[in-house]
Design a protein that fits this description.
By secondary structure, the protein is mainly α. It is built from 22 helices and 4 strands. The two termini are 30 Å apart.
Length: 417
């Protein structure tokens, strides 16, 4: 049992008034129904402890059992905690902020127009359905038009620009085509920000899904292949071609997975702290034209580069040399479809959810459309939405109350110490 799990159940949320303004009732019937289902905020309540148990035997059960029994995991979630209600409350405030900004008002500020138009486009399900694959066609045509492997590097940079995630590394890899690229603090000198290049290229959560040979893993990989084929068919490929292309994708991703550093080794900073000069990176992966890539992603000069897994990049370079251009065009076409799926037609969105959320994670239902659009807006326009959110949810009087509370806590702690 960890301290974080104990604190999760004992989490003390601030009263809604202290957090800012209470969300006002939503404007339409569907929104009102969704908001009515929002859980109430959890506040500290000593009666939630299970006094039938001995706290010294199992403090986690003593403190959490009653709360867990009263709060089953919702069908559209894969886990639930005391912070879940607060997150939904906050999503409602964000939704109202976006809805207000989406009204066609000539007095809208530039920020309101940006986030409002984004929200309106995301919530326009009829328009999305009518558009079909048209929004993705330029990307697929661009990939189809590649004439040589020399052009792959520029297409990697383009994919990293178009689809979010190339700068977001996680415990296993960066979930981006081929590799991840970002900037971060140097491991040996936190005052420096340097370029960081990470292993990537996989669509499944980590390398184990590809390399494990147990029955469950093998079955999951079969289902993944079927999923790829279905998605390619929905994108317009004939059934037979989609089946062959799914096999190509699996082959390439499995080869990249085998070359990746496993997540246990990645936990040791020494293993991923591989400093290289740009010249060394060029030598490591001559098939990737790094000067072209860095210029295309507008990367500033870096004192040095941190390469998380040199062995992965050696293997990637070998794969780029060995496989024909058509294989890589198939892989990139899949990557474009895979990353765009949540924003395309209902059939594409549903199939993407069915495999990645329901099959892999056990999520029974999709989040309602408004919550997904709220999360997308927060991810893609976080700075702009943040400004509008503060104006709505954290007015000056709330800031004054919060500062008063903080100063009172500081004074109390000073007296005790």
């Amino acid at each position: 049992m960890t301290i974080s799990r104990i604190m999760l159940c004992l989490f003390l949320t601030l009263p809604a008034g202290m957090l800012g303004q209470n969300p006002t009732p939503a404007a339409n019937a569907n929104a009102a129904a969704d908001q009515a289902q929002t859980p109430k905020l959890d506040h500290f309540n000593p009666d939630l402890v299970d006094k039938s148990l001995n706290a010294c035997d199992d403090f986690y059960k003593y403190s959490c059992n009653k709360w867990i029994a009263a709060n089953p995991i919702p069908a559209d979630q894969v886990y639930w905690s005391t912070g879940g209600g607060l997150e939904m409350w906050n999503d409602n405030v964000l939704r109202e902020t976006l809805e207000a900004a989406s009204k066609n008002d000539s007095k809208r500020s530039a920020i309101q127009q940006k986030i409002g138009d984004y929200w309106a486009a995301c919530m326009d399900e009829n328009g999305i359905e009518a558009a079909g694959m048209t929004p993705l066609k330029p990307e697929l045509d661009r990939i189809a038009g590649l004439k040589s492997k020399q052009e792959i590097t520029l297409e990697i940079a383009h994919l990293h620009h178009v689809f979010p995630g190339a700068w977001e590394a996680d415990d296993n890899q960066t979930k981006a085509p081929f590799f991840g690229f970002s900037g971060g603090q140097d491991y040996d000198d936190a005052s420096k920000v340097v370029a960081q290049i990470d292993q990537g290229g996989l669509s499944l959560p980590n390398r184990d899904y590809y390399v494990n040979t147990d029955e469950k893993s093998a079955e999951t990989l079969k289902k993944y292949r079927v999923h790829i084929q279905k998605m390619l068919v929905l994108a317009g490929e004939p059934e037979a071609q989609a089946g062959d292309d799914a096999g190509t994708v699996i082959e390439l991703e499995t080869a990249m997975a085998k070359a990746q550093m496993d997540n246990i080794k990645r936990r040791d900073p020494k293993n991923v702290n591989n400093k290289m000069s740009l010249a060394q990176i060029r030598e490591l992966t001559p098939s990737i034209h790094w000067d072209v890539y860095l210029k295309a992603v507008n990367a500033p000069a870096s004192e040095h580069y941190i390469v998380s897994s040199p062995e992965f990049f050696r293997a990637l370079d070998k794969l780029l040399a060995e496989h024909p251009l058509e294989h890589w065009k198939t892989y990139m076409r899949w990557q474009a479809i895979h990353h765009a799926a949540p924003y395309l037609t209902k059939a594409m969105d549903d199939e993407n959810f069915n495999f990645f959320a329901r099959t892999l994670a056990g999520q029974e239902e999709q989040l309602p459309r408004w919550r997904r659009c709220t999360h997308y807006a927060d991810r893609d326009l976080g700075e702009a939405l943040g400004q509008a959110y503060v104006d709505r949810a954290f007015p000056p009087e709330s800031k004054a109350r919060t500062l008063e509370m903080v100063h009172a806590i500081e004074n109390a702690m000073h007296s005790d110490i």
